């Protein structure tokens, strides 16, 4: 249950393979089970009324599960999302970053399953929950 | 975030409204947020090979979310499941009860959202995860 | 996109590997993509008020996806459900069987994905929708 | 089961309330049950390798369900997504738009449920399936 990549390794890897999201996400912490990611909320993530868009929250959940999986299996850029479900429960607070707490529930030979809670920074009532399944390519 | 029903109230209520499941489920503990439920695994819950059937695990997740919701809103027998998703992650251990740990993530005016992890008793690797949405009837 | 098992083969196989459900389900029709299954609704499937229980509807969706997958890959009893989601949309009609219409959306090397709509017999407004993911064991 | 808004009304309404997505989506057709939406795939929707990003597919499914719901209830900009699940089944084809076929399965007093299949234009094997639940504000 030990991470095989450091936060610095993963940050560098993410920026290289997903250059288009480098300004959006920050890995706050990882270990082999729990990952904390930040979405630096900017104008382009918002919907009218100042709320964060659904696709932006989906993206945060997705990248959190990706990082949680890679932290254990190492650099497998081909790992792909195969399934997810989300519940949108509260309106994110205007002007706050979103913080995702991801827990890797299973790392199998061909699939990983991660559970994610998303919070407005500083609040303890989750704005969304998600679960993400990643397919892991055979060695 | 306080329960409005005791474990004894809820147990008596469940047995009255769902007599057909009284031999299956035991409420281990409740508070206003967390609920622990036991499925007393018997022959009728099994599939070939001794594993617990999918419908039995679904039923455990569903009743856990129902109890977690009722603990906060009181006896509303008409509260109904509107949505769920589950991931089946490991084979339950033969001859062990299943224990569900349910967390009420949201209690809104018309919907509740509960997240559930299911374990074989004595193990700390979850066999399944679920989320359940209940519709709450207007007062 | 051709079935490799007939309805009779699959019926005989299901009864052998899942003897506990032989009185519940009937395969109405299969081809390589679409499967129609009937749940013969009986007292044991009901909740108070005469509605069919959630676990019974889950079971119907699950076995429909299993049959839809086996129709294409042949007898692989070890194929297991890895994920699902369901929406419960209407109350089933009392005294009617439930009919599931399952469509195999993907048959990959390691996963199948099936979409299911469940109807009270004779009605054209679905009572539930589901999607089921099965893991296919390596040859 | 009749639409209460025309394609032109809905297009004008979407562009006004979601100006940030006006260059992404086109309503191809609507009636009271079925909606067809196009994602005009551009550089900003892509991931390395030329595949369309998960958040872009989520966004397409989400807006399709929104339009399918509004087509029946009229301009209710406050209608919000409460739940979804998706399966990502095939890699979208490079250089092709994505076409979503959405079916409104239920329009209740407080919730709508929509099922969506997403295709690369010109292909008949779906790249993703989704279901979306929208909460409808009380009148």
UniProtKB/TrEMBL annotation, chains A, B, C, D:
Thioesterase domain residues: 49-123
InterPro entries xref list: HotDog_dom_sf, PAAI_dom, Thioestr_dom
Record's keyword annotation contains Hydrolase: yes
UniProt-recorded Gene Ontology molecular function terms: acyl-CoA hydrolase activity
Gene3D superfamilies per UniProt: Hotdog Thioesterase
Keyword presence, Hydrolase: yes
Alphabetized UniProt keyword annotations: Hydrolase
Protein name per its UniProtKB record: Uncharacterized protein (TIGR00369 family)
Source lineage: Bacteria, Pseudomonadati, Pseudomonadota, Alphaproteobacteria, Rhodobacterales
